[in-house]
Amino acid sequence: MSTTRKVPMRQCVGCGEMKSKKEMLRVLKTTENEILLDATGRKNGRGAYLCFSRDCLRRAIRGKGLERSLKMSIPEEVYDRLEKEMDVLEAK
């Protein structure tokens, strides 16, 4: 008997597309209300998922998808930092 593993699926807060967890980038709100990118997907905190594209990040900012998912208002400088970190990840 072979068993098939269930692939965890997540929805992008930018475009709304469902993808496997490994194909997505996790934006994390820590217990200290700090927002950062979690490339490993294993850190503790509330997470929201984005596709690996700047377009999805811009859609999430414009539609306030990250704010809804993380249940807090997000300052503009945090969005700027997320865009810079996204640039670094896209360059790899």
List its traits.
single chain; two-stranded antiparallel sheet; 92 residues; 3 helices; alpha+beta; three-stranded antiparallel β-sheet
Notes on the protein architecture:
This protein has 92 residues and is α+β, with helices and mostly antiparallel strands. 34% of the residues lie in helices and 24% in strands. It has helices at 54-62, 65-70, 76-91; strands spanning 9-11, 18-20, 24-29, 35-38, 46-51. Strand 3 (24-29) and strand 4 form a beta hairpin. The chain is globular, with a radius of gyration of 14 Å.
Can I get a quick summary?
With 92 residues, the chain is α+β, with helices and mostly antiparallel strands. Helices cover 34% and strands 24% of the residues.
What's the helix and strand layout?
Blueprint: E1 9-11, E2 18-20, E3 24-29, E4 35-38, E5 46-51, H1 54-62, H2 65-70, H3 76-91
Antiparallel strand pairs: 1-2, 3-4, 3-5
Topology, number of strands: 5
Give the uncertain stretches in residue-range form.
Answer: none
Largest sheet: 3 strands, antiparallel
Topology order in helix (H) and strand (E) letters: EEEEEHHH
Instruction: Tell me, rounded to a whole number, the average pLDDT.
Output: 89
- Please state how the strands of the largest beta sheet are arranged side by side: 4-3-5
Please estimate the helix content. 25-40%
Structural class: alpha+beta
Number of helices: 3
Computed Rg:
14 Å
Beta-strand share of residues: 15-25%
| First-last Cα distance | 40 Å
Give the CA-based shape.
globular
